[in-house]
Amino acid sequence: MKAIRRFTVRPVLPEPLRPLHDLARNLRWSWHTETRELFRSADPEGWRPADADPVRLLGSLTAGRLAELGRDEEYLGRLAEVSADLKEYLDGPRWYQEQQAAGAELPSAIAYFSPEFGVTAALPQYSGGLGILAGDHLKAASDLGVPLIGVGLLYRHGYFRQSLSREGWQQEHYPVLDPNELPLDLVREADGTPARVVLALPGGRSLYACIWLARVGRVPLLLLDSDVEENAPGERDVTDRLYGGGSDHRLLQEMLLGIGGVRAVRTWCRLTRTPEPEVFHTNEGHAGFLGLERIRELAAEGLDFEAALEVVRAGTVFTTHTPVPAGIDRFDRQLIVRHFGEDGELPGVPVEKILPLGRETYPGGEPELFNMAVMGLRLAQRANGVSTLHGAVSREMFSGLWPGFDPADVPITSITNGVHAPTWVAPEVFRLGAGQVGTGRAHQVLAGGPVTDGGTEQQPGTPRRWDAVGGIGDRDIWELRRELRGQLVTEVRRRLYASWRRRGAGTAELGWIDDVLDPEILTVGFARRVPSYKRLTLMLRDRDRLRELLLHPTHPIQIVVAGKAHPADDGGKRLVQELVRFADDPRVRHRIVFLPDYGMGMAQKLYPGCDVWLNNPLRPLEACGTSGMKAALNGCLNLSVRDGWWDEWFEPDFGWEIPTADGSAVDEDRRDELESNALYALIEDRVAPRFYDRGAEGLPDRWIEMVRSTLVNLGPKVLAGRMVREYVERLYAPAALSRRALGPAVARDLAEWKAKVRAAWREVSVDHVESVTDTVAGGSAELGATLSLRVRIALGGLEPDDVEVQVVAGRVDSADAIADAQVFPLKPAGGHDLEDRWLYEGPLALDRTGPYGYTVRVLPSHELLASGAELGLLAVPNEATGEGAGVLMR
């Protein structure tokens, strides 16, 4: 019989065990080994059935076991130590507070919005890399003491659970998640009633949401949940599942995340009396509506739209994670009008002001669509990609918003992602490192916080702090790798058996699983989402050749594969099925496996146990690709296309690069053929021989040296602590200073100045450029010579203080395009003539040999602009534009 009502009965802990409650409700346990061990020892047999989740474990403990633990002096002593450690972690000063004490001007708080957060498998609110990155961002911020407030949605079905049919077709399951059984607490008002946010919907309807709190160390993560009694059935389902539903459903989710998220932050700060955020970080475009809500708040205080927009932009950071336009949410213009019209949300913010923010005004854009990434860029003064290569790709992809500017000048920077080492480093790896530097220092090293060494503080991420790992003996490293590989073999067999049972196989059919994988064989891992560009099946391009690699008599390999296709992506599901059917072949099934239901729990076993991590996307479509970082932190070598983070940090000491066929004349099929052949050749000729090449003591000396180099030299670079520090120093702190500078009067003045400049810009032109002391003779000049330039500029009624005139110079190619440009300012050389033209002068030093050239440009200039390209306005000489006027951007 089915129950007519469901509720959760919480355990009553004996008084000596009460601290277990706080330890279980703070997700720091997910990356703190001592806390996990404390819970595991409470019920070693129940730890795995509880999925290593302390909340579930406590709910399963019998009253007798609780009483027994309450009398166990040794256990209570450990409990006291771990509880005291958590208190010190939560309350003590960390890197951020030390920077403030040293005089750094940092934000009082930062709100970090993301559609998904991968903090722990016990809180399944993620689908893939974006969510895992967001979770690692929160954890690293906590470790560094950064006052972050996370904001997301609570999906009652999460993403989905994956299984396989007998034929290998992906099947989706959506378990119901009860927040009361998760490590969450309901945010309540002072009178005990649940706190609510509410959004107005068309037709007089309302969307209500409660707020759940997840404690991620020092960082509160606020998750909005629409499954509340006040809502009609349709509105209750707004937060039903991650990345599900049609356009209207997705729009409501993103309105709740952005608009409702700001209101949830305001509620949290009011209830806890914590400082209001000065900076709002939009992690991808899904949360872009948060800027509109903040404009509404300012409008309610009397600020007009244009001035409010300047205030909002100053304090907003936007991070793009996609290298392809297809990965961006776009909504029909009329859907936006319906939800933000007269009876919709955001009163005081006219819909005719909202629409231009998301309009695709560039060539090839669709003006009838509302683009969330475009709005994110227009509402943020600072934007970034997530690797150096992705930054360049993003500048190219969004360059239409800044027409006339070279992609290199588009104001999108990059901060390369990192991973949270305490989450992803296997305990065995940690213990080996701690044996060299001590447990406390090892924790600090992995977290990315400052470490004192002989009284001298070393900055997080500096390689010197990792040098001690270089002192670990070859045999210790190799025995560690063998141990982790053996653990992976055991885990794979367990998961493969469970998968085949769900596929309908009987016990008598599955004896072969006992021989799947071999702890002594070179193990390759490949696990990620399954969009087509990640090329799950590239390894199957020549199946005979792959079989030869798997079954090689002296240098065999074995491969562990995992990944989920989006439920609506039948093409991705076909790729999964193709791989599964190959792995089902009795000839090779002991050497290649596909594990369904890839998630954080599986990943934490998979990365450490692999010897090589494979990544073969279509370059440059991998924004960053952090799975290889997690593998590297465990001594796993990378075998990857030069894309994402691997493009900037690849060295032969860390692994191998798969050559790419990037030529425009190469079609997709031919490209796959060339790159798969390169992959096979690398494994056959270089990777496998190095693994099996044994030295005098029976160890693979050259392989071990690569493992050591990966840990010592690559390890410090891939830390999320390094990443968060860069966000603080390069984006958050400047954004906070910009926001503080914009009081109401200053914001109005800035908005009026921008309007004046935009109105006058079509009359701005570069009329004449000459060299007063021309040292160029016969088309050449000597290195070290100086040109004295004089330029005549028409300012169209603007003043010299409103603009900056620059010389852009550098080497030129055969088409006279300037590469690796240098920029030199020119100074006004007196008043203006009767035609309102101004003279500018300045020197140009010829400090490079070879083909060289220069041009002149005029940009708006104001002390409150983050860059000269911010307004998207540019004037260049007639020779470049074919006309004298400036080019109006956006």
TrEMBL record:
Concerning SUPFAM superfamilies, the annotation shows: UDP-Glycosyltransferase/glycogen phosphorylase
Q: Which residues form the DUF3417 domain?
A: 13-123
The EC code for this enzyme is 2.4.1.1
Names of required cofactors: pyridoxal 5'-phosphate
Q: What class of enzyme is it?
A: transferase
Matching entries from Gene3D superfamilies are given as: Glycogen Phosphorylase B (3.40.50.2000)
One matching Pfam family is: DUF3417
Quote the InterPro entries the UniProt record gives.
Answer: Agluc_phsphrylas, Glyco_trans_35, Glycogen/Maltodextrin_Phosph, Glycogen_phosphorylase_DUF3417, Pyridoxal_P_attach_site
* Alphabetical keyword list: Allosteric enzyme, Carbohydrate metabolism, Glycosyltransferase, Pyridoxal phosphate, Transferase
Q: Which reaction does it catalyse?
A: [(1->4)-alpha-D-glucosyl](n) + phosphate = [(1->4)-alpha-D-glucosyl](n-1) + alpha-D-glucose 1-phosphate
Annotated function = Phosphorylase is an important allosteric enzyme in carbohydrate metabolism. Enzymes from different sources differ in their regulatory mechanisms and in their natural substrates. However, all known phosphorylases share catalytic and structural properties.
Among NCBIfam families, the record links this protein to:
more_P_ylases
Give the similarity note.
Answer: Belongs to the glycogen phosphorylase family.
Q: What is this protein called?
A: glycogen phosphorylase
Q: Which gene encodes it?
A: glgP
